[in-house]
Recover the amino acids of this structure.
């Protein structure tokens, strides 16, 4: 029972005479208002204690959050990973105290990283007392995988609303595949709360445009229309007609003129649930810092503690005991237990009963749902993966990827995704029979058309992944810059998302430097927890996928060539399965004992091999290391790393048509990196390779120079 684990009231308040305070409050206010003011005052106290944080928006939005959680949402606090729960996303993540207050007051339980065991409360009052402190489950911003009940990490404005679009797409897809007559297993809504900042950020426009196109009527954004951001009134930079904008996106737009009117708020959500064929935007007029006499409606209420005196005055305006801190009055926990707790339990119990019948009637579909929830795949998910025969002409990384992806997608029904309008070029289109397109009229389609919206695409892929689908997105590698903030969040959230980026280097030839990535590999390699993989031939592509698909808590960026790459003869060179170790010895001199090491990734692996053959013919003992992924290699044992790159061999040449930044780590101070020191140029690839030094002779010369041989 939720109530049993709530802290006793005696431990909650920090005032001398709690019973008196309680009776005063109960006399004065009804329990709904008490619950709302508890959210407000917990937020105020936490920010004041931490001496940092954002009190104003929690003070304004407490009635909204109260209404959503206790009256609107279908959510069982006892099981925050119940698949059919409504999703709540706080896109204005700086208002995190709203979330910590409501997760605490509703008694949401923690789940473990395997999404299996339910444990302690997700957020305790002690966590709130230690808001923003090390180890607290009430950190500065909502963090998925750190605090149970957080559906997605937010803080970079705009990410939450865009991720919510991915969640809404996932619901439509899941309902289409798994719901059966009489079995509405997936029937949830996705709610996101956002502020001026989220709607100013471009990503929200991308995401809203796509959501409107797709007619996602399971999606509701609430816009906190307070006319305040950090620098002051929105008059200085944000005067557009938001309602007209969203109407143009084909959304339904509702307005609630008073953020304190719980009844009006509730009615707006009723209208949302009755609206078919369109997403809903609720514009909620609110007053930041509501109740603080000197700070309400000012930017000062946004991001700094109110100050002791203003805290007292705000509490006085709420009819709250002025000395009370972290005070949860009698009846408030019980009120949430009787509200969301009771409704949520009924809904989840009914669902579980329904699912057990479904399990008997549709065992295969039920098994899929169970696997998906654990981020597992059906047996034989990697069957039919190709082995590409040696071929000096070979095929492009993107071509090989397209073949593999199409096979995997047939083995894994919930692998879905697409490209930002470059499917034919990225080769990410799923072409097998029945793959279909995801559209409003065909929500079972597997091919997403994100349009030319890389940023929203990446956030939507995160949303798919947070809904336990295996999502992928694609574009040209250079344009990952347009998606980076969401890719970074993938890594921060430890999601197994897949980003497929082709046209990985100079291969874009004639398109010129705007289309030729240079610094991108280095910058991705700097993102903690992100697997960046640049396979060197078709079989390395296969092995890359085999590795990626087994990841359950890490995102991957797969970097693929545009141009054909020879398929190496694996009877002559080491097997491509070495990819799973990030770097492996592809070729050695006869009898081993190399004197120089050539390290390459992707399209330059073949270059290193050609240089190696040449060096051997001249009696120089070179080794080729194929290094598709720094990240994976870094996770190998020191022993393995030393076997691939023996410390005593200091003559090392790395070759990659990208920024050389970071390669010193592997070539050492005495090594050489053949890379890019400028942007590229517009010309056929062959000429570019010559101009920028990506030819076997350059590698041979560098190796010889290191060995001081002519
Ligand atoms: C992408 C991004 N840029 C900047 C910030 C820093 N920042 C945090 S809150 C904020 C102002 C947000 O204003 P609004 O959304 O209206 O929130 P309110 O103050 O009304 O709660 C800014 C600029 C951020 N978190 N994310
Ligand atoms: Mg604002």
């Amino acid at each position: 029972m939720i109530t049993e684990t709530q802290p006793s009231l005696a431990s909650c308040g920090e005032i001398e005479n709690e019973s008196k305070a309680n009776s005063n409050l109960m006399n004065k206010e009804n329990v709904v208002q008490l619950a709302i003011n508890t959210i407000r005052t917990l937020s105020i106290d936490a920010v004041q204690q931490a001496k940092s944080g954002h009190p104003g928006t929690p003070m304004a939005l407490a009635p909204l959050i109260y209404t959503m959680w206790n009256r609107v949402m279908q959510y069982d606090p006892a099981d925050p990973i119940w698949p059919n729960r409504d999703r709540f996303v706080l896109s204005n993540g700086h208002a995190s105290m709203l979330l910590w207050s409501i997760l605490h007051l509703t008694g949401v339980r923690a789940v473990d990283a395997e999404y299996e065991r339910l444990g302690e409360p997700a957020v305790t009052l002690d966590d709130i007392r230690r808001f923003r402190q090390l180890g607290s489950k009430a950190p500065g911003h909502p963090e998925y995988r750190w605090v149970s009940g957080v559906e997605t990490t937010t803080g970079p404005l705009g990410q939450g609303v865009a991720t919510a679009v991915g969640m809404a797409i996932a619901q439509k897809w899941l309902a289409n595949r798994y719901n059966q007559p009489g079995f509405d297993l997936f029937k949830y809504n996705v709610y996101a709360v956002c502020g001026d900042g989220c709607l100013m950020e471009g990503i929200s426009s991308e995401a809203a445009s796509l959501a409107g196109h797709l007619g996602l009527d399971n999606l509701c954004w609430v816009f906190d229309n307070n006319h305040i951001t950090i620098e002051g009134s929105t008059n200085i930079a944000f005067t557009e007609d938001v309602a007209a904008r969203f109407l143009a996106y084909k959304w339904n737009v509702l307005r609630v003129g008073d953020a304190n009117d719980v009844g009006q708020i509730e009615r707006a959500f009723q209208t949302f649930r009755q609206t078919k064929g369109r997403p809903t935007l609720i514009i909620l007029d609110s007053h930041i810092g509501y109740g603080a006499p000197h700070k309400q409606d000012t930017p000062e209420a946004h991001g700094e503690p109110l100050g002791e005196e203003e805290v007292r005055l705000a509490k006085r305006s709420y009819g709250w005991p002025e000395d009370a801190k972290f005070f949860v009055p009698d009846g408030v926990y019980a009120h949430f237990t009787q509200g969301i707790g009771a409704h949520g339990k009924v809904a989840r119990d009914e669902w579980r009963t329904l699912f057990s019948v479904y399990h008997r009637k549709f065992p295969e579909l039920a098994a899929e749902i169970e696997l998906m929830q654990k981020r597992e795949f059906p047996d034989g998910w990697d069957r039919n993966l190709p082995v590409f025969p040696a071929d000096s002409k070979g095929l492009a990384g993107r071509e090989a990827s397209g073949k593999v992806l199409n096979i995997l997608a047939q083995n894994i029904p919930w692998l879905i995704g697409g490209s930002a309008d470059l499917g034919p070029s990225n080769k990410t289109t799923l072409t097998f029979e029945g793959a279909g397109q995801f559209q409003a009229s065909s929500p079972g389609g597997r091919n997403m058309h994100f349009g030319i919206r890389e940023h929203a695409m990446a956030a939507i892929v995160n949303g798919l992944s947070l809904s336990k689908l295996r999502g992928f997105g694609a574009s040209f590698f250079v344009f990952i810059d347009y998606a980076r903030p969401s890719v970074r969040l993938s890594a921060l959230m430890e999601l197994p998302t897949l980003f497929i980026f082709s046209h990985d280097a100079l291969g874009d030839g004639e398109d010129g430097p705007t289309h030729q990535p240079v610094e991108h590999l280095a910058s991705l390699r700097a993102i903690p927890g992100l697997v960046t993989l640049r396979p060197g031939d078709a079989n390395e592509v296969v092995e890359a996928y085999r590795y990626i698909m087994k990841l359950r808590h890490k995102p991957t960026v797969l970097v693929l060539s545009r141009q054909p790459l020879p398929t190496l003869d694996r009877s002559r060179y080491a097997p491509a399965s070495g990819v799973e170790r990030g770097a492996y010895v592809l070729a050695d001199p006869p009898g081993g004992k190399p004197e120089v090491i050539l390290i390459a990734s992707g399209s330059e692996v073949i270059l290193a091999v050609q240089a190696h053959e040449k060096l051997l013919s001249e009696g120089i003992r070179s080794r080729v290391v194929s290094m598709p992924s720094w990240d994976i290699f870094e996770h190998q044992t020191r022993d393995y790393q030393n076997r691939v790159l023996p410390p005593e061999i200091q003559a090392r040449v790395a070759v990659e048509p990208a920024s050389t930044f970071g390669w010193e780590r592997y070539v050492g101070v005495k090594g050489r990196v053949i890379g890019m020191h400028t942007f590229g140029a517009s010309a056929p690839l062959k000429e570019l390779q010559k101009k920028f030094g990506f030819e076997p002779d350059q590698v041979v010369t560098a190796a010889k120079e290191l060995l001081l041989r002519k």
Notes: The mean pLDDT is 95. Residues 598 and 624 are 5 Å apart (CA to CA).
